[in-house]
Amino acid sequence: MSAPAAQRTHLLDALRGFALFGVVWSNYAVLSIWLFMAPEAKAALPGALLDEPLETFHTILIDGKFYSIFSLLFGIGFGFFLAKGSDGLWRFYRRMFILLIIGWLHLRYLWAGDILFLYAVLGLLLPLFRGLSDRALLIWAAALILSPIAIDGAVVLTNARFDPVEPFVRWMEASDARYGNTTFDAFLAMADGSWKELMHANDRGWIFRFVNLMESNRPPKVLGLFLIGLWVSRRKLFADVEAHAPLLTRLCIGGFTLGLPFSVLMWWAEGHVGYPPEASSLVRTASYALSVVPLAIAIASGFALLWRNERWKSRLMLMAPMGRMALTNYLMQTIIALGLFTGVGSGWGTRVSAVMYEGIALFVFILQVLWSHWWLKRFRFGPMEWLWRSLTYGKVMPMRK
User: Given this model, what pLDDT does residue 329 score?
Assistant: First the structure.
């Protein structure tokens, strides 16, 4: 591997590892079951006084930004496969099909908040855009990312007579009626339950997740970010950061300038714009679209700019092994959480406040960074990366160094 290619790979691995930090911070609000608790129950927990400032911090700087960075990286990776010609495209399809299976198993039997299944489904659509020009890619990306505003605007203008999500909501309500309680109740029961309660929650959780993805208009956003990632791959922004430093600087400054005010607006709207519900949803949707993607681009660009400094590079490089094992570490974050927060393990769910699950998430991330370093000194791939790669290429890949 040439020096520039190696540097590019290390940078992307480190950025992917950094994104996993934001992901575990966000996901543990759900995996700890804290998100589903009643306000009175949250207020009774130790450290609950910090809940509100932590929620503010998360809404403005964390929520949505790091899965968006992951989505960008996914699109960049697709660009690498395209560079390999038709053989690379065929392997990309196989890779997506395998990821689809992994994502479904994760979604159906471990955690309803899975993102892999959606990535795989939308990833299968990416080859349809490979013939577009760079300009057309960005136009399509912008249209997809902003499309939720048009959808929610149509809901408001028609007084909710046009609501494409309504059939999916009815589907979830029918599921709740069939079981005699809400999906939230099923999630709460996991805290003290056995495998039976965990499987019962997962029986219903995947429907809840599907509805949640539709309500938040997530598919077009993610596909739009994939296309931006493909554009970044074509322009080779991360292959030679120094050469593209002026563009990356503009993206960083512009992303923060646009994204931060709208992120603050999104936080403010959650507590102040409540009626009518459709209007509240439109304000949140618009502020989300105009904050999350610009901030994700700004953070990724800023990360790349810091990479030019040798002192910063040596610090950021610590997260590269974590990023090389992103699939393994992402799934491990779920497994560790199930062991900590559900009745099949320690049963800490519903007993930890926001500051406590945040501290646990930080500890898990540090532990995974250390473990990833240890593992990759001895093996070429993470366990799930080895499986994914072997199935993609149709042969058992050598594992030990």
Answer: 98
Cβ-contact 279, 273 below 8 angstroms: yes
User: Could you give the count of Cα atoms lying within 13 Å of 63 in the half-sphere of its Cβ?
Assistant: 20
The candidate with the shortest Cα–Cα distance to 141, out of 51, 30, 221, is 221
Task: Assess contact for 45 and 353: CB atoms under 8 A.
Answer: yes
Task: Tell whether omega for the bond before 276 is within 30 degrees of 0, i.e. cis.
Answer: yes
pLDDT, residue 273, reads 52
CA distance 118 to 100: 8
Instruction: For residue 32, give every residue at least 6 positions away whose Cβ sits within 8 Å of its Cβ, in sequence order, or none.
Output: 337, 340, 341, 348, 349, 352, 357, 360
386 Cβ contact list (under 8 Å, min separation 6) = 379, 380, 397, 399
Using CB atoms within 10 Å of the CB of residue 72, give its burial: 0 to 12 exposed, 13 to 18 middle, 19+ buried: buried
For residue 47, the tally of other CB atoms under 10 A from its CB is: 15
Q: What are 90-112's pLDDT values in tens digits?
A: 889 999 999 999 999 999 999 99
DSSP H helices, 124-194, are 134-157, 166-179, 183-189
Tens of pLDDT, residue by residue over 31-45, are 999 999 999 999 999
What is the pLDDT, as a whole number, of residue 162? 67
The DSSP string of 54-106 is: HHHHIIIIITTHHHHHHHHHHHHHHHHHHTT-HHHHHHHHHHHHHHHHHHHHH
Residue 279 confidence (pLDDT): 58
Q: Is residue 400 helix, strand or coil? A: strand
Tokens at 379, concatenated: 């093996």
Please answer whether residues 262 and 290 qualify as being in contact, where contact means their C-beta atoms are separated by less than 8 angstroms: yes
Partnered with residue 379 across adjacent β-strands are 400
pTM beyond 0.90, yes or no: yes
Q: Report the candidate in 51, 44, 113 with the shortest Cα–Cα distance to residue 337.
A: 113
Q: How far is CA 188 from CA 33, 169, 253, 338, 350, in A?
A: 6, 20, 42, 13, 7
Measure the CA–CA gap between 245 and 208, rounded to whole angstroms: 43
Residues of the chain with pLDDT under 70: 1-8, 160-163, 271-280
